[in-house]
Amino acid sequence: MINESQIRAYATQKIKEGISKQEIYNYVVDQCKESKTIVSVLQATPSIAARKKWGWLNIILAVILGTGAILSFLSFSIGGILWTGFGLAVVLSYRVNLYVWVSIIGACGFIGVIAVMVVAMNQHPINPVPFIIAASFAGLVTFLGFFLSARLSPACEEEKVMYKTSDGKKRLKVVHKFRDI
Question: Is 115 exposed, middle or buried (0-12, 13-18, 19+ CB in 10 A)?
């Protein structure tokens, strides 16, 4: 029996070799019959074509998160270092299924920056430009996390196909169709 980590390693290796997700799915499903696990692994693994097409946005997201990690380190913010470090690790490893958490990090940062700005402005006059810049970067992280999770690994289509068993009975089986971009 093949487990999820073995399927992930195999799929990642074959995608790097340029084999399409559909070919990988067809081969692995014939070997182990665990289509749900295979689908979830392939959905979370971007193809080479998707990495080439959207990789520049992934780099921008990594740079923003890396800058946030450095700024968190310089301000001795352990929580900031952990969150931005986690986000950076997710983005650099292309773990598309975890990009939603990167977006949540960005949304929390956005809300936090706006809240600090409002409180600070109520206490004394301040220059809002640094807060606006920080909120813009946090909003960009939120947007890019959701955008890239959808673009790097688009959802597969399910098709129900009628087939006959060896004893002549008609059955339905679900066939998954993957797009590599």
Answer: exposed
CA distance 65 to 80: 10
Cα angle at 56 between 100 and 71, to 5 degrees? 65
User: Which DSSP helix (H) or strand (E) runs through 36?
Assistant: helix 35-43
Q: Which two tokens stand for residue 76?
A: 């001795």
Q: What is the 3-state secondary structure (H, E, C) of 80-130?
A: HHHHHHHHHHHHHCCCHHHHHHHHHHHHHHHHHHHHHHHHHHHHCCCCCHH
Q: Is the model's pLDDT at 45 over the cut of 80? A: yes
Supply the mean pLDDT for the chain: 86
Report which of 84, 100, 86 is spatially closest to residue 147, judged by C-alpha positions.
Answer: 100
Least confident window among 55-69, 92-106, 120-134:
120-134
Instruction: Output the CA–CA distances (angstroms, integers) from residue 153 to 24, 26, 51, 95, 180, in the order listed.
Output: 15, 18, 9, 10, 8
Q: Is the pLDDT of residue 1 over 70?
A: no
Amino acid (1-letter code) at residue 76: F
> Tokens representing 174?
């679900």
Q: How far apart are CA 134 and CA 120, in angstroms?
A: 15
The answer to whether the beta carbons of residues 177 and 156 sit under 8 Å apart is yes
